[in-house]
Design goal:
The chain is of the alpha/beta class. Helix content is 66%, strand content 8%. It contains 25 helices and ten strands. Strands 3, 4, 5, 6, 7 and 8 form a six-stranded mixed sheet that branches. The radius of gyration is 32 Å and the shape is elongated.
């Protein structure tokens, strides 16, 4: 009997369950897709390094899934509140007819169970299909061989999805039981006649709070942009973040008391059409949803920043590969090590010979197996650190950039060595007079800093030889292969300005003496294994174009997937909360819309008013989030400057399309469902 009643209730209220069903199915599908990546990657032909990166990425995504499940749990509980509120009168009728609260709770239990089973089955089915597309995306990102592509079902992802969502539905069942047990018959029967009372706050007090909040937001914006260099330490960033979050809450709180008052004073606008009705409805919602609006706004802000930064980082790292890793292999080595605490006797002994001699000693024929060999020595001088290298600019810099490592010794190379590596890397070669130097750098934040020191005409004193800057700005370039723009500055000086006693590091850069890709892979494997197997006896560091490429692609893919995962979940959660709140309001306001019809308002006018009301409700937190994101993206751009991620336009356009698709889709569904609700007789 109760089972049949539950089925009839679900079929009867299918339009009320539409958003709920859609959100649950989407949540299940996304959860399965991102947890199935590990099994999907099994069929890909990838290197061992790439396989390790994919494994790391799936482990990170598993951790993120715990956080995602908590968000989805809160969302499902919130959605169930809407459904119970929508059916208050129905439950009141059941109680009037003599049904006990336990049986009503049992009906809800059965309904939730049915909805859960259906959403899990449909969601897993959709997730299975989408995961096949995800496998192609993963393969494309990791440039893997998909010749063995086949449809794969992930039992691990399926079990994890079933466990997580079963726990969520169990929590909802408990919540529903508690909710029903607290209900009173009179409240259930008259719930649709109750309306929110709009408490008009003191306009003067709201204005003061709004102004103070805007000033606090302005301070937070400055701290994460222009004031970033003046922060005492990395943890100081949490101060502007906290100020921004609290200020956002008070902005919504003050506006909830100001908006209606402002529009009431604008009589031509307020009394035009159904504007007075629309604005009062919106004011009522924002009055009762200040905290929810704040959370939604901050989640949208995080979504925009995370997705924009992740996409920008991926694009930049992909574009940087050819430019920043132009040679096949680069081996580095510390020279004349004396640190017995961190190095063994064998390593210290090895540091006394060159990279070439070390490799020959290990049985690797350098001359036959490598070509285009370039040797480059790096020097340090005790009297040349960051502080002395910027000269008189230090007096300004120490206050403006307090976190700079001013005691760090500068790296110095000879002009002849630099020109050799520049030729191999395809960079511009230079000449120097005996009394000149220049700085090679490509890390934008340090370039701006060093340029100020060069403009101050800073003189370097090396071995009692005074050198002046040849240029008043840094030369773009690098000496160490990397996937990022992380060269903070290398000083290039005349050959006679340095001597071997100050040599600290050595690079050997070359190409493999083969052209076929398979032969290159074998050469790479041979040299890397020699370096790894003898890491305890030598002080050499191995790097190559292949490893840089794999690590860059792996890091970019990991950031992109985490950004997509969180971005989709955050967007769904924000949009679903707004949608359910609006549907709940529409359900409560059926009588109000009927009253508008009775006084002669036509359907077209009512629908326009409803569209504006829902549109403002969805746009309000998004607009504030976009304002936050302007400064948040600038901060992210500062963090990503090492990756050359200065141009965020393409990623921002991509994020905008993403938001319009999901957030806009929920808006349209909400409008259509609300329109159907208010048409009820």
């Amino acid at each position: 009997m109760l089972f049949k009643l539950s089925l009839k209730n679900i079929s009867k209220s299918i339009k009320d369950y539409a958003i709920y069903f859609f959100t649950l199915i989407l949540g299940v599908a996304i959860f399965y897709v991102f947890n199935a990546i590990d099994d999907q990657s099994v069929m890909m032909k990838v290197s061992s390094t790439t396989a390790e990166i994919i494994k790391l990425m799936t482990n990170v995504l598993s951790g993120v899934s715990v956080f995602v499940s908590i968000i989805l749990a809160f969302l499902i509980v919130y959605a169930s509140r809407f459904l119970i509120k929508r059916r208050n009168k129905e439950f009141g009728v059941y109680l009037t007819l003599g049904m006990s609260k336990k049986k009503i709770s049992l009906i809800l239990f059965i309904e939730t169970l049915i909805i859960g089973i259906v959403s899990l089955v449909v969601g897993l089915g959709i997730g299975f299909l989408l995961s096949q597309l995800m496998s192609i995306l993963v393969a494309n990102m990791f440039e893997a061989d998909l010749t063995r592509f086949q449809f794969v079902f992930s039992p691990n992802a399926c079990i994890k999805t079933l466990i997580y969502f079963s726990i969520m539905y169990f929590v909802v069942m408990i919540f529903n039981t508690i909710n029903i047990s607290k209900c009173k018959l009179i409240d259930l029967m008259h719930s649709n006649k109750k309306s929110e009372k709009i408490k008009l706050k003191n306009p003067l007090f709201c204005t003061i709070v709004f102004i103070i909040s805007c000033i606090a937001l302005g301070f937070a914006y400055y701290q994460v942009t222009g004031g970033i260099y003046k922060m005492a330490n990395a943890n100081s960033i949490f101060v502007p973040i906290g100020i921004g979050a609290v200020s956002t809450f008070f902005v919504f709180w003050s506006l909830s008391g100001l908006l209606l008052k402002i529009f009431i004073s604008m009589k031509n606008t307020y009394y035009k059409g159904l504007n007075s009705f629309t604005l009062r409805q919106f004011s009522s919602k924002i009055n009762t949803m200040t905290f929810s609006m704040t959370v939604i706004c901050l989640m949208l802000f995080i979504t925009i920043c995370v997705l924009s930064s992740a996409m920008s980082m991926k694009i930049s790292m992909t574009n940087n590969l050819k430019k920043l890793a132009p040679a096949d292999v680069q081996i580095g080595k510390f020279i004349n090590v004396t640190d017995y605490e961190n190095y063994s006797e064998k390593q210290i002994e090895d540091s006394k010979i060159s990279i070439y001699d070390t490799l020959e000693k290990l049985g690797y024929d350098v001359d036959n197996k490598l070509k285009d060999i370039v040797k480059l020595d790096v020097y340090n001088f005790d009297n040349i650190d960051l502080k002395t290298s910027i000269g008189s600019y230090y007096d300004i810099a120490k206050d403006k950039y307090p976190l700079m490592p001013y005691n760090k010794k500068e790296s110095i190379v000879k002009i002849s060595d630099y020109n050799k590596i520049a030729k191999l890397f395809g960079l511009k070669e230079y000449t120097l007079n005996d009394d000149e130097y220049f700085i090679v750098a490509n890390y934008s934040e340090y370039v701006e800093f060093r340029n100020e020191g060069l403009k101050a005409d800073t003189i370097l004193n090396i071995n009692e030889k005074k050198l002046k800057p040849k240029y008043d700005s840094c030369v773009e370039g690098f000496i160490a292969m990397n996937s990022t723009y992380s060269n903070m500055g290398v000083f290039v000086v005349p050959d006679n300005a340095v001597n071997d006693s100050m040599k600290k590091y050595e690079y050997l850069t070359a190409n493999y003496n083969v052209t076929d890709i398979n032969e290159k892979n074998l050469s790479e494997k041979e040299l890397s294994e020699i370096c790894k197997e003898n890491s305890n006896n030598t002080v050499i560091d191995f790097d190559s174009k292949m490893t840089i490429k794999e690590n860059s692609i792996g890091l970019g893919a990991m950031v992109t997937f985490i950004g997509l995962y969180l971005g989709i979940i955050f967007l769904i959660s924000c949009a679903a909360i707004l949608a359910l709140k609006e549907l709940s309001e529409s359900s409560d306001n059926v009588e109000k819309f009927n009253m508008l019809r009775k006084i002669g308002v036509d359907e077209e006018m009512i629908n326009k008013a409803l569209f504006r009301q829902i549109g403002i409700f969805f746009m309000f937190p998004l607009l504030v989030a976009i304002i936050h994101s302007i400064f948040g993206i600038k901060f992210c751009n500062f963090l990503l400057s090492a990756f050359g991620a200065a141009n965020l336009l393409s990623s921002i356009i991509g994020v905008a399309i993403f938001i319009v698709a999901i957030y806009g889709g929920y808006f349209l569904v909400t409008y259509i469902c609300s329109k159907n609700i208010i048409k009820e007789k």
